[in-house]
Design a protein that fits this description.
single chain, 4-stranded antiparallel beta sheet, 8 helices, 12 strands, Rossmann fold, 2 domains, alpha/beta
Length: 223
């Protein structure tokens, strides 16, 4: 999943990016509202984490402008103010969730996961495709009761396809959701990870779940 963090506190920004990358997220960052609004408009993010007090354009203005432009990416607002009035203002401005500083990273991560589940219209942290089970809170994957050990990018790709199970997912969409704009990896790496997942998930004797639709993309199909 791909996340944009808009935060002018460099130490917090680096800390949040490091933590989310370790959780298999692709992360873009912006240190002012102007850059954040631009990035939110040109990339397809699964979530935007948006500070309120920002240089150039404040977070409330960024949020209102996003909604005015028809950008409906889920937004988690960060603020140092915790009055009821500020919370109401944030939610009424189009925020999907609100987190007051200081906060524990574990709480932010839980809210991030919940908002991503909401985007893909599921409340269950356990994704199931046939006999494949993916626990999005622990990143533990089982097939037929047997645990599968995946590398971070393998997990990220599997999770994304599972959220979109039954859909043909174009290569471009996979690329946009698994890699940040600074990543210089070639697009062929997607084929590499698909091949690795097939070897681990679609083992001999098991019904294949992965399908390649020539010229269109990839499909994770259950029943």
């Amino acid at each position: 999943m791909r996340v944009l963090i808009v935060e002018d506190n460099c130490a917090l920004l680096k800390s949040l990016k490091k933590g989310l990358v370790e959780e298999s997220f692709a992360v873009d960052t912006a240190e002012d509202g102007e850059e954040g609004l631009y990035l939110a408009g040109v990339n397809d993010y699964d979530l935007v984490i948006l500070d309120v007090m920002l240089p150039k354009i404040d977070g409330w203005t960024v949020l209102r402008e996003m909604r005015t432009r028809g950008l409906y990416t889920h937004v988690l607002v960060l603020t140092a103010r915790d009055t009821p009035e500020d919370k109401v203002r944030g939610l009424d401005s189009g925020a999907d969730d609100y987190l007051t500083k200081p906060f524990r990273f574990e709480e932010l991560l839980a809210r991030v996961r919940a908002l991503i589940r909401r985007k893909y219209q599921t409340k269950n942290p356990l994704l199931a495709v046939a006999d494949l089970e993916i626990d999005t809170s622990t990143h533990i994957v089982h097939r037929g009761g047997e645990e599968m050990f995946l590398q971070p990018k393998e997990y990220a790709l599997l999770e994304y396809l599972a959220y979109r199970a039954g859909e043909i997912v174009p290569r471009a969409a996979i690329w946009e959701h698994l890699y940040d704009w600074q990543d210089d990896t070639t697009s062929n790496i997607i084929d590499v990870y698909i091949s690795r997942l097939r070897r681990k998930i679609d083992r001999p004797g098991l019904r294949p779940l992965f399908q390649t639709v020539r010229g269109e993309g990839y499909l994770l199909k259950g029943d």
